[in-house]
Amino acid sequence: MRNVNGLAGSFLASVDPSIVDAIRQRAVVHHHPSGSIVVSEEDGDWTGIVLSGMARVFLRTPDGRQVTLRHARAGGSIGVGALLGEGTVSAQAVTDCRVMRLDHEQVVRLAEQDSRLALAIATELTVRLTETYHEMVVRERGSLRPRLARLLLHLAGEHEPAEQPLVLPMSHEELADAVGSAREVVSRHLARLQSEDIVALDRGRITLVDPVRLHETAKRLD
Q1: Which of 34, 85, 119, 143 is most solvent-facing, going by the fewest CB within 10 Å?
Q2: Helix (H, G, I), strand (E, B) or coil at 93
Q3: 50 near 56, Cβ under 8 Å?
Q4: Highest mean predicted confidence (pLDDT) among 2-16, 156-170, 184-198
Q5: Helix (H) or strand (E) holding 29
Q6: Rounded to two decimals, what is the model's pTM?
């Protein structure tokens, strides 16, 4: 397998290079266009590392609603909990992504033999759990700007990805209702995001021009 970039910031960075090479040889790199599904909860034991781009990690409720947990960028893992026996999730590409799918059985077997790999997996799971907690805090306690940014990212994943996955056919009033604010206030925040070249506003639709910067905005608590 050719050399794979993007692992420097992953949980494999602290693992013995010979073990990383063995994992790379059995791993498969997939290219996922924006809007496509990277993995579904129905896929079972699945663990991957994002090499480039950004993906939205989410769960489905029994009634079919999607609940965004976090956004994975280069070096971040998806489904790392599956290596410990739990944690099946779904993920969708927000931008074009390259994701390296690991050989689940191989990594589990190697972790049983190498304590550094086992510790790296446990540490990664803790980091991703903390990210999920932060997502919950922003959703409940964050100011309007990060809550609006988070909502835009979430809604982008809910619309049909086949044509324009980063274009939301929504009015300012519909967004205001969804985020729980006045239309005038939401319009001001959207105008500011447009002035920063993060979104583009047209009548009845909003285009996410720079979803990575929008994600950074969504993480802020101020």
Answers
A1: 85
A2: strand
A3: no
A4: 184-198
A5: strand 28-32
A6: 0.71
